[in-house]
Amino acid sequence: MNTHFLTRLLLIATLAIASHSAIAETTTVTSGEILVPVGSQSSGLQASTLPTHGQTMTDVLQTFGKPDTNDTIGTPPISRWSYTAKNMTVYFEGKRVLRTVVHHSVATP
Length: 109
Description:
Layout: H1 3-23, E1 28-30, E2 33-35, H2 57-64, E3 69-73, E4 78-83, E5 88-93, E6 96-102
Antiparallel strand pairs: 1-2, 3-4, 4-5, 5-6
């Protein structure tokens, strides 16, 4: 078998697994455990209200206000803005959103 064929086969298998995982993101109960999809763990934030890839720092400031903490490292600059009350962190490359992370919050019984 040639390397190109194996690479394509691996890519197809990876995409199949990823699409199956995305479809399977439902709440499941097994042996006393409740599995909750990561995106639904924060009751205060919905995916539609989070900063999205490519938004500017100005857009994020206007929508969410000043962050609680602001760290920048490296070249190109990677910045991390933490919003503690909103349980999220926004990562920027330069002046654009790279990724938004919603932090898991433990439910109180």
